[in-house]
Every structure is written in structure tokens, then in C-alpha cells.
Amino acid sequence: MSGFAEDLWASLPMPAFLIDPEDRIMDVNPAAESFLNASAKLIKGQPIFDTLAIDAPVDEKIRRARTDQASLVMNAVDVGSGSAPPVTCIVQLAPMVHLTDHVLLLIEPRALAARLGRSMNAKSAAKSAIGMAEMLAHEIKNPLAGITGAAQLLSMNLSKEDLELTDLIVSESRRIVQLLEQVEQFGNLRPPLRKPVNVHDLLDRARKSASVGFAGHMTFVEDYDPSLPPTYVDADQLLQVFLNLLKNASEASGGAPGTIRIRTFYDMSLRLRRKDGPAKVPLTVEIVDDGPGLPPEIASEIFEPFVSGRENGTGLGLALVSKIISDHDGWISVDSVPGKTVFRISLPVAPKDATDD
Ligand SMILES: Nc1ncnc2c1ncn2[C@@H]1O[C@H](COP(=O)(O)OP(=O)(O)OP(=O)(O)O)[C@@H](O)[C@H]1O
Ligand SMILES: [Mg+2]
Predict the structure, then answer these.
(1) Are 333 and 286 in contact (CB under 8 A)?
(2) Would the CB of 294 count as within 6 Å of ligand 1?
(3) 111 φ/ψ angles, rounded to the nearest 5 degrees
(4) How far apart are the CA of 149 and the centre of ligand 2, in A?
(5) Closest residue (by CA) to atom 7 of ligand 1?
(6) At what angle are helices 199-211 and 235-252 packed, to 10 degrees?
(7) Model confidence, pTM
(8) What confidence score (pLDDT) does residue 198 get?
(9) Which stretches does DSSP call E strand in 32-172?
(10) 162: CA distance to ligand 1 center in Å?
(11) How distant is the alpha carbon of residue 46 from its chain centre?
(12) Does ligand 1 lie within 6 Å of residue 315's CB atom?
């Protein structure tokens, strides 16, 4: 082996075995030595199946790797090594280039494998983060009520200076309760109760309630396609989606006047593939604002829970939005540059036989 190849072999963090055409171990790396708790000298030349007890038809797989000249992966197999108890591993086989009928066998013990799996599965991580937060929310609310009550009792015979402190306890506790309630609302989301709905009615309701509240400083422009067929959604949940997007757009302007354009159209090209065939989600709603755009450092994560670019944001708004939209088999995407941020939602058309009772 050349120096570099040797270094590479020695640096591999997982046990590696080079198997010759007679299924004997031709070489092992240091990780394999420590996995077997034996020196390379002792291991070399031994039949692979005497050395490793693998709970899977490895002999057949090694033959396949040789004949097909292709690599193979076996997930979750138990690998024993003499006296040590078996460990669940991922086992990989690869034919050696330039060395006829030699096969490389790599073992990845589960601890390492599980760690890799987790990082690839951000969605389930988010789920468990929310589950954890929900449980905490529930546990924190009761003692918090006690703390608030005690502070209010204390405040009854305090000087003005000290009163400021108890007021602070009370107002900060309120803020925490609000946050906890938002977390709980996230967990309580029921499966959508779908009915045929005119999306413009929903948008109008959202716009009206926004303009008398958080969006007082914003101008609305409506760009509706009046010929749109009814969509098939849970009206309450979709209203929450629109309100959240309008609220974010209003907050983005930082209190300065701004414009929010609400656009609807029928997108013929958009199809969302599902296991049971293509589902069409052609009804498109765009909420466009002329604010500063997404903060670049969080732009790729805004749909994750607890990601916020605002001082007092919980970062749950868009996580809720994306959960609701995906529960409706819809799509949501965002395009943002300073001066123009577009949130685009694609929704299904109500089936012809759907009733709205
Ligand atoms: N229209 C927008 N323009 C600029 N930035 C936005 C826009 N919408 C969302 N963002 C950014 O994405 C972040 C995440 O939004 P999200 O609604 O999930 O949480 P939040 O608004 O911070 O808190 P919450 O909605 O729970 O009160 C925001 O904090 C903001 O930085
Ligand atoms: Mg928000």
C-alpha cells in the first residue's frame, strides 16, 4: 500500500476487513483490531466467518458482491466478535477495484449509525422537540400561576419602587403563559375537517381582521382570479394560515407603512405526487410584501419550530402554517429578496361530489 492509502486505511473510524477470494481475512484496520480486541497479526489469515459472527446470510452477500461487482448494505444486523456480546450494526460490502474477487467489509456499530440517521431526519426531530415542549408547557403553567398569584399578593403592601418588581414578575409570567399556550395550540391541532370553501372569502376575513389589528399600518392590494373553483380545506385552519402570513408580513416592515399584495390564480402546471397517484393542487395563493426580506441566517429554516428572527417571536407561526398545509396535501414555498417576499401556497380543488354540510 502507498503511504496515503495506508494512512486512509488507518484513519477509517469504522472496523474494516479486506477479504480474499477464499473468504479469509487479508487485512484489517486498527478500528477492526479494537472491535475484535485482537491484533492484526492474529486476525490475518483467519476465515472471516470464524472471526465474526454476523446474524445475516453474509456468505451469500459476499458472493453477490463478487459476481455483480456491486456494493451492498445490510441494515441492523447483529455482529458478534468472539467473547464480546453482539452489537447491532450496519454492514457494507464492496468489491475491491483492481483486486479480483477481493471484498471490503465495513462494520458500522449502531451508536454511530443512529446518530447519522437522526441528523437526516429533521422532521421527526422537530416533532419530538414539539412533544417535549408541549409536556413542559403543561408542567410549567401551574407553578407559574402560583408565582403570579404570590406576586400579586405581595404587591398589596409594597412601596412604589418594589411594586415595579412585582409588576415585572406578573407581566413576564403572562408572556410565558402566552408562549406556552401557543405551544399547546400546536399540539392540539386536530386533523382537518375539509369542506368546499371559497378561498377569497377566507382571504377577506383574514384581511379584515388583520387591518383592524396588527396590520393597521399596511395597505392591502387584492389581485384575485374570480373564476377560481372552491378549494377543499378546513376553513378555521386555513384562516389561521393566512393570519399568520399576514402577521409576519406586517411585522417585517418594522412598524413602517408597507404594502401586502394578495394574489390568487390557477396554476395548471403544479402537481404534487403522492403514493396513490398524482394529487393536483392548482389553487395558488400568494402573500407578497415589500419588506426587508427573510434574515439570511435563518432563511433556510423558517419553517422549523422555534426559529425566529424577531426579538419576541416564538418561531411557531410558520411551523404551524407548514403543518396545516401539509395536512391538506398542499405545498408552501417562499421566495425572498429585500423589497419582495412571496409566500406561495398551493391548495387542492374541491372534488365534484364533496358536500359542504
Ligand atoms: N414576510 C416576511 N418577511 C421577512 N421575514 C419573515 C417574513 N415571514 C417570516 N419571516 C421571518 O421568519 C421568522 C419565523 O417566522 P414565524 O412566523 O415562524 O415566527 P415568528 O413570527 O418569529 O414568531 P410567531 O409567529 O410564533 O409569533 C420570523 O421571525 C422572521 O424573521
Ligand atoms: Mg409569525
Answers:
(1) no
(2) yes
(3) -50, -45
(4) 30
(5) 248
(6) 40
(7) 0.62
(8) 97
(9) 53-54, 72-81, 84-95, 103-109
(10) 36
(11) 46
(12) yes
Cα–ligand 2 centroid distance for 346 (angstroms): 20
Cell numbers 395558488 label which residue? 284
- Average pLDDT over every residue of 220-241: 95
SS3 217: coil
Is the CB of residue 305 below 6 angstroms from any atom belonging to ligand 1? no
**Is 320's C-beta closer than 6 angstroms to any atom of ligand 1?**
no
pLDDT of residue 109: 78
Q: Cα(325)–Cα(345) distance, rounded to whole angstroms? A: 8
* Ligand 1 center–CA 178 separation, angstroms: 17
The answer to whether residues 26 and 102 touch, using CB atoms and an 8 Å cutoff, is: yes
Pairing of strands 271-274, 277-280: antiparallel
Q: What is the model's pLDDT at position 263? A: 97
Stretch 142-156: mean pLDDT, rounded?
A: 90
Task: Record the cell numbers describing residue 354, joined without a space.
Answer: 364533496
**For position 189, what pLDDT does the model report?**
76
Ligand 2 being an ion, which residues bring their Cβ within 5 A of it?
248, 317
Residue with cell 401557543: 182
Confidence at residue 200, expressed as pLDDT on a 0 to 100 scale:
97
Tell whether ligand 1 has an atom less than 6 A from the beta carbon of residue 258. no
- Ligand nearest the Cα of residue 314 is 1
Q: Tell me the mean pLDDT in the region 186-208.
A: 91
276 or 82, higher pLDDT = 82
pLDDT in tens, 296-315: 999 988 998 889 999 888 88
Name the grid cell of 26. Answer: 487479508
* 287 Cβ contact list (under 8 Å, min separation 6): 242, 245, 246, 249, 260, 261, 262, 342, 343, 345
Burial of 261 (0-12, 13-18, 19+ CB in 10 A): middle
Nearest protein Cα to ligand 1, atom 12: 302
Task: Say if residues 26 and 47 touch (Cβ distance below 8 Å).
Answer: no
pLDDT tens for each residue of 52-106:
888 778 888 899 999 998 888 888 788 877 666 677 788 899 999 888 899 999 9
